[in-house]
Amino acid sequence: MKVIILNPPRYYWPFLSEGDNYMLPQALPCLAAVLREHDVEVKPIDCLPLRIGWKSLENLLRKEQPDILAVSTPETMFSHEGLKACKLMKEIDHSCTTVLGGHHFSATWKETLKENKFVDFVVIGEGEYTLLELVRELEKPRYKQRLTKIKGLALRRGKRILQTEPRPLIKNLDELPLPAYDLMPMKLYGKGKFLWCPGGTTIHHGRGCIGNCKFCACWVQMGEKRKVGNVYKTFPCYRTKSPERTVEELEILRYKYKKKFLLFTDDTWNVDPKWSEKFCELVKERGIDFEWYGFLRSDFILRDEKLGVMEKIVESGLRHACIGGERGSTKELKSLNKASCSPDVTYKVVKLLKEKYPEVFVQVTFIVGFRNESKETLKKLYEYVKLLDPDFPAFHPITPVPGTEFYEEAKNNGWIEVKDFRYYDWMTPIMSTEHLSREEIEMEITKMSRKLFSVKRALKGMFSRYAHKRRLHWWLLVVATKITLAHLAGKLSERMYYKISKTTPYYAMVKPKWYDK
Ligand code: B12
Asked: How far apart are the first and last CA of the chain?
């Protein structure tokens, strides 16, 4: 069986350079490694760094003639590209089996299979062993195939669409083979000058999360499915590779592929202080010089500071901390199942990082546009963020994505105004509030971002003695300038000043030159 695992062509975020727009999607080398370990002929293809547009992809699929095309588009906003790839494959060769996976399709498997005859299977949740078993079954003559025996799969049975028993999570992540980075165009990742990981790539040590935030799809995708009564419910579950295994992977990326900056894709990097301490000691012992970006929980940073572990984490190379601040009131955070990181805790953390660890660039993300959002609640949030004064405050309109508790709530209450998933880009408001229209939400985000842009902070950052901080403050200036120029050029007027038709939002993503080629 010949398997292609595909990250299809897609649009880019505006204002970011091409290299800053994508990174190595960990799913591809992880899935490929397990298939290769079991002697399956596998080719992961990431169209973005290779600039493979749809015409080139068609020619490539005609030449490769895979038996199985497995497509990974985790993000809801790119799900249409995943479907397009399956449709194209069936037009080229109807006998090729098409498989989808990732966050979005794991949560929409029923409607995906119902509405799209060109999709044969959806792999739900953690995919390594489900995909392997699917390949093994499809290798057998049809009458011998026992597809419904494969856990974690959605498939058709005549007119019915079935979901098999949930796939148990992999208990010991160290049993997985090292991701097949050698099958990826590693040289082409990290070409960005500024943002995610200049000269770098992605890595992950943990999977899943211990939190169960209402708006987040991460913990759901890697959550544990347990039977409650007659139905399966998803519970947060956190697992991690050992520090030794993670350092082994890190050294391959650092020395074999010369990647000096790593983005840890873990939902929460700093769950276990013992793990963090051991990892940092190994990095120090082996003298690995690298810098890294991580999603860190604020209350765990304070805990680790008290334990003396935070010093070791920064010493190991942490240079960009992304913290989910979300809101400025404990009551609001409680309603999102995120009370553990209170506004006061996040305030203490940003103050600690700025004063004791100036080498760390502090990004704090906030969500606006919940049902009761008004100019008054936004003013309070603005005052809080102004007080916090992180290097980069990022505001995202709440985007109800399938699989999350918030999506069900928004859907059941009829709050979702934009049904076209292409607009779920975390920039375009998808729903209005009891007090603000979608356009007003967008206007408020722009106003807050502009008012929070401080020349003093920018200049201090742009001439910081820490390279990563310098780079990012220059990036912030470049992006702010681009937005302002686009605004002056009136390119943004359509968006900023409500010339948007009340029905279809304005599509902000940028089409790469090679997209159709
Ligand atoms: C790294 C990452 C990014 C990176 C890189 C993305 C890239 N590929 O270029 C960056 C920072 C650029 C990014 C940006 C965005 N991201 Co992002 N990202 C992630 C993150 C943190 C890690 C993904 C990862 O590597 N996971 C580790 C691997 C091992 O797990 P995995 O991808 O889940 O794959 C496993 C299974 O899902 C499954 N699987 C996955 N695909 C497939 C395919 C097949 C065929 C099979 C069989 C199995 C399978 O098997 C894999 C192995 O077990 C996830 C959160 C998360 N933890 O998953 C968010 C996440 C995927 N991103 C998300 C979003 C929304 C975005 C943005 C749109 C918005 C934003 N503000 O971030 C942008 C848009 C991207 C763009 N540039 O245009 C959401 C998607 C939710 C949704 N339903 O839409 C997530 C889930 C975060 C969240 N909090 O909800 N992202």
From this structure: 28
How many Å apart are CA 327 and CA 95, to the nearest integer?
50
CATH class (in words) of the domain with range 185-460: alpha beta
Q: Are strands 261-264 and 200-203 parallel, antiparallel or unpaired?
A: parallel
Residue-level pLDDT at 491? 56
Is the Cβ atom of 21 under 6 angstroms away from ligand 1?
yes
- Determine the Cα–Cα distance for residues 341 and 333; give it in Å rounded to an integer: 8
Residue-level pLDDT at 137: 98
Q: What is the dotted CATH code of the domain comprising 2-163?
A: 3.40.50.2300
Cβ of 426 less than 6 Å from ligand 1: yes
DSSP for 89-144, please give it: HHHH-TTSEEEEESHHHHHSHHHHHHH-TT--EEE-SS-HHHHHHHHHHHHS-GGG
Helix (H) or strand (E) holding 84: helix 79-92
Cα 76 to ligand 1 centre (Å): 10
Query: 100 - beta bridge partners?
Result: 71, 122
Q: Is the CB of 217 under 6 A from ligand 1?
A: yes
Return residue ranges of the chain for CATH 3.80.30.20. 185-460
Rounded distance from Cα 23 to ligand 1 centre (Å): 10
Is the beta carbon of 76 within 6 A of some atom in ligand 1?
Answer: yes
What's the confidence (pLDDT) of residue 18? 78
Give the Å distance between the CA of 318 and the centre of ligand 1.
21
Query: In the chain, where does the domain assigned CATH 3.40.50.2300 lie?
Result: 2-163
Task: Tell me how far the alpha carbon of residue 218 lies from the centroid of ligand 1, in angstroms.
Answer: 8
10-residue mean pLDDT profile of the chain (517 residues): values are 97 78 93 98 97 98 98 96 98 98 98 98 98 98 96 96 97 98 95 71 97 96 95 96 98 96 96 98 98 96 98 97 96 92 96 96 96 96 96 95 97 95 90 94 89 86 90 84 74 46 55 93
